[in-house]
Amino acid sequence: MNLSIVNSFTNSRKEADMAKRLRTLGIVLSVIGVFFVISGGVAYTQVQDGYGSLQSFSEAQNVTLSYNEDGQLVDRGTTEGADAIMVLLTEDWGYPVKDADLDPNDPLVNTGSEYMFQMATITYHTLHGTQTVVLEEDTEYNGETFAAGVYEFDVNGMYWTDFDRMNPIEGPARDQAWNGTAHALIAELGVGTVTHSALQLGLAIAGTLAAIGLTVLVAGLGLVWATKEEKATKPDATEPESKKDLVPVG
Question: Which domain holds residue 44?
């Protein structure tokens, strides 16, 4: 047998085997892609359920932010109050507020930025409030005598841990300013913020899974298509028989 014919036959077999392997790989990739797409769809469904639950929770509480006729945030009727709260939120706490979350057409508190602004509102008024403390009798503390009477204590930006709880004025003022209601509301709003952030993260994960799945699926189908076997064509009937039977001679 002519050597060139043998080499040609061997190369054809190798190409066929390679095409078969690539086609198998394409099928495997397609299956993996479908799995990722389905996973992304399931994750997206779960995230949407979470958004629905958070929305229902917000509607049940019916806590809303206040805006003026120009769509600006206000607190107790003034934009200056809202600006001061925003400074506390963005500068003191370093929270990245998303302007898109603050929608005057949808004042219901149901996004991360809205939950945080409402938390900052409660905190701001707690930090800048005045508490009335009544001493029934003279009290001495650290060499200082506090006469019986009524004291107006300015919280002046003091958080819970900033107070001297043993001080006869600061101790009661701390309990009055940072009372159970303030702590509970702040904690509840914090849960809402974390929940909304977790849902956004879940949405991003769902999108990533779907994107990976589609990419792998397209790559797999592309391999299957690229290695698709071509149907053998019949010799041209008009071709001379003598040319059909010719065998290359080395």
Answer: 3-60+211-227
* Residue entry with tokens 């003191």: 92
**Token couple for 242:** 């003598």
Distance CA 76, CA 84 (A): 12
Confidence of residue 3 (pLDDT cuts 50, 70, 90): low
**Residue 246, CA distances (Å) to 180, 219, 233, 234, 241 in order:** 100, 42, 18, 16, 9
Tell how strand 139-141 and strand 144-146 pair up. Answer: antiparallel
**Amino acid (one-letter) located at 70:** D
Residues 127 and 221 in one domain: no
Please say whether the beta carbons of 126 and 189 come within 8 A: no
Across 101-105, 178-182, 183-187, 227-231, least confident range: 227-231
Number of residues in the chain: 250
